[in-house]
From TrEMBL, chain B:
Lineage: unclassified sequences, metagenomes, ecological metagenomes
Keywords: Oxidoreductase
Species of the source: marine sediment metagenome
NCBIfam families cross-referenced by the UniProt entry: PorC_KorC
Name by which UniProt lists this protein: Pyruvate/ketoisovalerate oxidoreductase catalytic domain-containing protein
InterPro entries reported in the protein's UniProt record: Oxidoreductase_gamma_subunit, PorC_KorC, Pyrv/ketoisovalerate_OxRed_cat, Pyrv_flavodox_OxRed_cen
GO molecular function: oxidoreductase activity, acting on the aldehyde or oxo group of donors, iron-sulfur protein as acceptor
Length: 411, 192
């Protein structure tokens, strides 16, 4: 259980998520296996079985029950964790809303995969994006280390009394879940400095199970009651959580020495950039390589990693738009029938509405269902943005104003 | 080729021959012996025993590895099963300057279809595994002898690093594994 020294382990993204839950002193885990998430909860099962992690491990018959179990455990005042993906998250959806509505600081990693039909198990963030309006904070990790670090930061954000909301940390299935890289596992003394204390026997301030302080859970509220106001407060506090996210990223950097920008976004070579590509997940890290290679060829390009989709970093997007002429926003997800077809680009456009900024946003969709996106392909995306800036010329074959990059010819 | 910033290794095996574990062990050993960064990338589909399997390692002495993509232009190819050479997508990646390490107990005839700069080494990994009883349900485990041969040919890591990583991973089974590594290290030879 105890980790005296810092250790570098050569592990997969999934195993990094499991180590993070152990480092975060999670007390209750509930789990149901689904590809490509399964090895997260397998590793946690090993930790609990070997006595390496003093947690309760609740095996259940479905993802719906996973979240139901965690809702109960969290109401009782414990630190909780699970992981899922794709169809599992959709099956869990009812209880996902329940966790946010009850304001429970549950943390869950998502090894994102395409939604069926047809069956698909590879990287695609449509699963987590589908839970957009549930009231969970949604973040994306672009590297193995960032998965580990994001889980640690998540507890500090979610358990803050000004937030008290659950959080998803999503990363591409197989792209990060099954590839292996060196990951720093932090020692107990540093973790203790950073993490909030575990909830005491009184539990969370707003919801608890305590015979001395009887409280009704999950009751019916008439339209004249406070249901409406509860909803307003979730939105209000979600929006305000941007400040907590920034503060936690700063503290994290101070203690562990790893920077994640301002917590909401992370910029790369943006100082003199003419055009910028905004990415989520692993493609954001790979885009940095594309930036370096293009800068050697003389192109002034920059990259932004969008770390949080909920709360949406509105001010940061406006700030980027003020500095560049053209922004490409890349979605590895689909939002059918939306203004752009992708969730992130739609919201970036909406962030600029009525600001008087005339920066062009080019919506791009790529890598759907795990289709591989190469560095070369990302370099081409940058070149399309440069051309758009210089000549005003849009790429050919756009579909409803969006570039579906890397799509096969269909009839 | 060795001066290249990121060295890329492709593994081609059949389900059960432990090619995916090999890609992970290679990356980890490179990291252990001072490479700055390393990544192991398995290609996962609906595999089962006997199906063609691909995996990749990328190792880098200085630069951070930031791409999660599969390898299309490898520096080394480890072929666990000679029948895989007949698959067009495998054969197509045998490009100029690539070093092939093939599990075979006999010379392989490429009918002069390869570029002259391609170097080919063979090692009888199957024979070595069976000799030391490294098999599960009669299927030889090939990853460690193949990595022993790779250690010799690439010179990236020594048997000492292999032993360190294998002990960490396999505990009491490490010694048997190391015997196959040493044997392969000593017997791998260039196919002329």
């Amino acid at each position: 259980m105890s980790q005296k020294e810092q250790e570098i382990k050569f592990i997969s993204g999934n195993v990094a998520a499991a180590y993070a839950a152990r480092s975060a002193k999670v007390q209750v885990i509930s789990a149901y296996p689904i590809t490509p998430q399964t090895t997260v909860v397998e590793k946690l099962s090993d930790f609990v079985d070997s006595g390496d992690m003093p947690a309760q491990y609740i095996k259940v018959e479905s993802e719906h029950s996973v979240m139901a179990a965690l809702v109960g455990a969290s109401i009782a005042g414990t630190r909780t964790f699970s992981a899922t993906a794709g169809q599992g998250l959709l099956y869990m959806s009812e209880m996902v809303h329940w966790a946010a509505g009850a304001r429970l600081p549950i943390v869950m990693t998502i090894a994102s995969r395409g939604i069926a039909p047809p069956w698909n198990i590879w990287a695609d963030f449509t699963d987590v994006i589908s839970q957009r309006d549930a009231g969970w904070l949604i973040s994306f990790a672009s590297s193995h280390q960032e998965i580990y670090d994001s889980v640690l930061m998540a507890y500090k954000i979610c358990e803050n009394e000004e937030v008290l909301l659950p959080m998803f940390i999503a990363y591409g299935g197989f792209v990060l879940s099954h590839t292996s890289k060196p990951v720093i596992i932090e020692p107990d003394d540093k973790l203790e400095k950073f993490l909030p204390p575990l909830p005491d026997e009184k539990g969370w301030p707003h919801i608890f199970i305590d015979p001395e302080r009887p409280m009704m859970h999950g009751n019916l509220i008439m339209p004249s009651g406070f249901y409406y106001e509860f909803r307003m407060k979730i939105h209000d506090e979600m929006m305000k959580s941007t400040h907590i996210i920034k503060q936690v990223a700063l503290e994290f950097e101070k203690i562990f020495g790893r920077s994640y920008g301002n917590g909401l976004i992370q910029e790369y070579k943006m100082d003199d950039a003419d055009v910028v590509l905004i990415n989520i997940g692993g493609l954001a890290l790979q885009a940095e390589q594309a930036v370096d290679e293009l800068r050697q060829e003389g192109y002034k390009v920059g990259s932004v990693k969008l770390r949080h989709f909920r709360p949406f970093p509105i001010d940061e997007i406006i700030n980027i738009a003020k500095r560049v002429d053209v922004i490409g926003v890349v979605d590895r997800d689909t939002a059918f029938g939306s203004p752009t077809g992708g969730a992130v680009s739609s919201e970036c456009k909406s962030a600029l509405h009525n600001t008087g900024i005339d920066t062009i946003i080019l919506p791009i969709i790529t890598g759907i269902g795990g289709r591989e996106v190469s560095v070369e392909q990302q370099k081409e995306e940058f070149k399309i943005l440069m051309k758009l800036k210089e000549t005003g010329e849009l790429p050919k074959d756009m579909i409803h104003g969006t570039l579906w990059d890397g799509v096969l010819e269909v009839k | 080729m060795i001066e290249k910033k990121i060295i890329e290794i492709a593994f081609h095996g059949r389900g059960g021959q432990t090619a995916i574990t090999a890609s992970k062990l290679l990356a980890e050993m490179a990291y252990e012996c001072g490479f700055k960064d390393a990544i192991a990338i398995p290609i996962i589909g609906a595999e089962r025993r006997g199906a063609p399997i691909q995996a990749f390692s990328k190792i880098s002495r200085d630069a951070q590895i930031r791409s999660y993509c599969s390898v299309t232009d490898p520096d080394f190819m480890l072929i666990f099963d000679t029948t895989l050479l007949k698959i067009p997508r495998v054969f197509a990646t045998i490009k100029e300057g690539v070093i092939l390490i093939i599990n075979s107990n006999h010379k392989i005839d490429f009918n002069n279809n390869l570029q002259k700069s391609v170097k080919i080494y063979i090692v009888d990994a199957t024979g070595i595994s069976l000799k030391y009883g490294l098999a599960i349900e009669g299927f030889p485990i090939l990853n460690i002898p193949m990595l022993g041969a790779f250690a010799k040919i690439s010179g990236f890591y020594g048997l000492d690093i292999m032993e360190k990583v294998i002990k960490k991973k396999f505990g009491s089974r490490a010694e048997k594994n190391m015997k196959t590594a040493r044997d392969a290290f000593e017997t791998v030879k260039e196919m002329i």
